[in-house]
């Protein structure tokens, strides 16, 4: 059998998504193209795309046979068993993965560690916070979730959650409580959570039979694609990722030629029910720190005219007074409501009235308020897995250039395919102008 020599050539880069188109050519002169997304962070994914298949096997075999040189920086996941060497053991394990034979695999977590888990993942699942519950629902795994936290959950968006084992009203959970819940896999919250590192330590020190999933939960598509693969529900996860990619590409194409000074200026706010004229939280963006998914969205708008309070000291959020808005006068204010005092049994008109009353108090003298240019949505809608599909619709309230047809299609598909409720059933997730 003729050996195959694998050559990897990056032929295009999509700057908006950080995605490269890679052409892999074999010794048989056949070739294929793969999209290098770097979001399936499972060892064995040698070519950094969204799948693990025979193309990855060709690469690993070529390296193991000494016909190609492994570039561990560009292709770290070619090392299938994560031991620092590529040899026949990697080939054997990768063949099992491709055949979906039960085995142990490794993925890269939010701390950069290679974490060992069962493959495919089966059995009972625990979720740390509403975002992880939302992810389980998206992947069609909610019936497998037997334990969850109660914070930011409700019986409309997460039906039956009160019947599951409770991790309490928070996202920092005692690892012993996780073990007590009897789950086979725990999907961790990673922002301020101590559960993920503590769970890893417990598993490593005691050999507890538990799969710990702790990719940075802010990396939404990385979580969807990787966990979708590990749970063997890739059809669902890749369908979602494809639509999310269409939305991000469309946003870039629609806005790339609009100069900053021709765009409306925008400020983004985390609006709490306790906000006062002396204490309003303006969201910002730190390259290295945690950031709200709304901030990541606004940062992705080409040439964005973003009015920020954190330019001198980039951060997740900065508290300002109403005077700051009067001094800067953003054309639009996009806000996400948190602890606004709304409930699942309130009508949309009642919810709008709650927002109007608070906005009149803290933004009443601004041009944005008086021009009807304050746009509201819930924190749960814009800081969770709904964000990549509903965000175009949100931005269409600000930018005329947005593709309204795609925005509406993606928004509707979120509720039709990836949620267990409709926006009519849970009007708190509506997007609306704050007007009388």
Automatic annotation (TrEMBL):
Alphabetized InterPro entries for the sequence: ABC_Transporter_SBP (IPR050902), Dockerin_1_rpt (IPR002105), Dockerin_dom_sf (IPR036439)
GO biological process, one term: polysaccharide catabolic process
A Pfam short name: Dockerin_1
SUPFAM superfamilies: Helical backbone' metal receptor, Type I dockerin domain
GO molecular function: hydrolase activity, hydrolyzing O-glycosyl compounds
Residue ranges that the Swiss-Prot or TrEMBL entry lists as coiled coil: none
PANTHER family assigned to the protein according to its UniProt record, in alphabetical order: MOLYBDATE-BINDING PROTEIN MOLA (PTHR30535:SF34), VITAMIN B12-BINDING PROTEIN (PTHR30535)
Protein name per Swiss-Prot or TrEMBL: Periplasmic binding protein
């Amino acid at each position: 059998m003729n050996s195959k020599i694998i050559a990897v050539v990056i032929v295009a880069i999509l700057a908006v998504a950080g995605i490269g188109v890679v052409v892999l050519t074999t010794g048989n002169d056949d070739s294929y193209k793969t999209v290098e997304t770097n979001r399936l962070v499972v060892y064995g994914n040698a070519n950094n795309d969204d799948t693990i298949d025979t193309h990855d096997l060709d690469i690993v075999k070529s390296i193991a046979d000494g016909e190609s040189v492994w570039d561990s920086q560009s292709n770290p996941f070619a090392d299938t068993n994560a031991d620092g060497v590529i040899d026949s053991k990697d080939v054997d394990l990768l063949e099992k993965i491709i055949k979906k034979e039960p085995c142990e695999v490794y993925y890269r977590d939010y701390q950069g560690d290679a974490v060992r888990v069962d493959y495919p993942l089966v059995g009972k699942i625990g979720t740390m916070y509403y975002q992880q519950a939302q992810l389980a629902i998206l992947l069609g795994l909610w019936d497998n979730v037997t334990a969850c936290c109660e914070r930011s959950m409700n019986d409309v968006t997460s039906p039956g959650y009160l019947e599951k084992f409770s991790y309490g009203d928070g996202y920092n959970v005692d690892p012993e409580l996780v073990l007590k819940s009897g789950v086979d896999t725990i999907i961790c919250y990673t922002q301020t959570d101590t559960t993920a590192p503590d769970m890893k330590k417990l598993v490593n020190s005691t050999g507890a039979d538990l799969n710990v999933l702790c990719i940075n939960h802010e990396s939404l598509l990385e979580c969807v694609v990787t966990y979708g693969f590990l749970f063997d529900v890739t059809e669902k996860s890749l369908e979602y990722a494809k639509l999310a990619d269409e939305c991000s590409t469309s946003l870039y194409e629609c806005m790339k030629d609009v100069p900053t000074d021709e765009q409306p200026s925008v400020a983004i706010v985390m609006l709490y029910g306790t906000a006062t004229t002396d204490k309003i939280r303006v969201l910002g963006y730190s390259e290295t720190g945690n950031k709200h998914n709304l901030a990541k969205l606004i940062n992705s708008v080409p040439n964005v005219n973003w009015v920020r309070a954190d330019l001198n000291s980039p951060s997740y959020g900065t508290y300002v007074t109403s005077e700051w808005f009067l001094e800067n006068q953003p054309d639009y204010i996009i806000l996400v409501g948190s602890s606004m005092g709304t409930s699942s049994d309130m009508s949309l008109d009642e919810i709008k009235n709650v927002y109007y009353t608070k906005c009149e108090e803290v933004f009443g003298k601004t041009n944005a308020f008086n021009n009807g240019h304050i746009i509201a949505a819930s924190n749960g809608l814009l800081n969770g897995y709904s964000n990549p599909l509903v965000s175009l619709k949100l931005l269409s309230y600000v930018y005329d250039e947005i593709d309204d047809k795609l925005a509406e299609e993606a928004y509707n598909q979120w509720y039709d395919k990836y949620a267990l409720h409709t926006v009519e059933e849970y009007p708190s997730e509506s997007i609306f102008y704050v007007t009388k």
